[in-house]
Design goal:
Length: 150
């Protein structure tokens, strides 16, 4: 048997930069690969509370408009012999959103869809970015997908 576990969430930030919609990718210190925001759910937190906290910690972004992406990242983790399932959120940021990285990342870029997909290492990331672009940039999401921040 291969256990399935869900212990983390992730989020993709969108902002208008120089008149164009861009998504945020960051280069991780550990592994030196490009990614979006992600983190482990702490005791007593909901998934949406975790991603709000992680955005603040990793990027300095204060989340004001949050949606569930209706997408699950999933991958096999060989070290623990588990299938990891990670619910994804989308954050709409104000135009030209400032980013202040913590020590988990060395650099960041606001990218077009094509640029972001060229930077990331994993096919699942590319598929996620296509999904986000289609459902959150080319079209506006259903208001039913909005997360009420309280």
């Amino acid at each position: 048997m291969i256990p399935i576990r869900c212990k983390a969430v992730s989020g993709v930030a969108l902002s208008t930069v120089d008149g164009e919609t861009k998504l945020l990718v960051m280069k991780r210190v550990k592994g030196s690969f490009w990614c979006h925001v992600a983190g482990t759910v702490e005791a007593g937190e909901t998934g949406w509370q975790t991603i709000v906290r992680e955005f603040g910690e990793e990027t300095g972004i204060t989340v004001c408009e949050l949606y569930t992406a209706h997408y699950l990242e999933q991958f096999y983790e060989s070290a623990s012999n588990t299938v990891e399932v990670v619910p994804v959120f989308v954050v709409y940021c104000p135009p030209n959103q400032a980013v202040t990285l913590n020590d988990e990342h060395t650099e960041y870029r606001w990218c077009s869809l094509t640029e972001a997909k060229a930077l990331v290492s994993f096919p699942g990331q590319q598929a996620l970015y296509d999904h986000v672009w289609h459902h959150f940039v080319a079209h506006r999401p259903s208001p039913l997908m909005r997360v009420a921040l309280r």
